[in-house]
Amino acid sequence: MRGDRGQTLPIYIWLTVILLFAALAFFAFAQAAFARNGAQSAADAAALAAAQEARDELLLGLGDAVGTDDNWLDWLDLPGDVAIPNDGPTAAAQALAADNDATVLGGAEPEVVDGYLRFHVAVQTNYTVGDSIIPGTENMQAEAEATAVIKPRCEFDADADPTKPLELVCDDEPVNIDPEDFDPDDLPDASVMFSVHLAE
Description:
Elements: H1 2-65, H2 87-99, E1 102-113, E2 116-128, E3 141-152, E4 154-155, E5 166-170, E6 173-177, H3 190-193, E7 194-198
Antiparallel strand pairs: 1-2, 2-3, 3-7, 4-5, 5-6
Helix pairs in contact: 1-2
């Protein structure tokens, strides 16, 4: 009986070591998942911030175009040649990334995909995964990417004359514009005329 008890002691020790190792490995993966989720949250916020800043720029451009440019309706279709200062969206993306303890890699570059204006942002966390049983995690930073899309919400008659008064329907809200008697302050909030959401 004494001999049997002596033989089981090494088994208990090995089982304890195995369970401890498994617990430490699980903790390491949990650390990595936490860092990855933090990076993704930062990327999502940065991409949305860039697109929202661009949306505000679009509204300002539209306000300047009405009454001075007979092609002002093109702003509502977001053509690929719509000029948006890149420093604004990039600065907004960097600010939101910093709020989430991350850094934007590169900038927030606009691109047109399937007719819609998009902003793709990549970020890297300012913090590391942390010490774990996996070598190198103490210096490993998480990275993630996200893309936000701007879509027009306004509908209007395709044959509408941009030099005459017309009514837009923006997300079921009527917006009346008279190019001959127009005040940019009469435009609704940018969110009424353009939607912003993360790409799937």
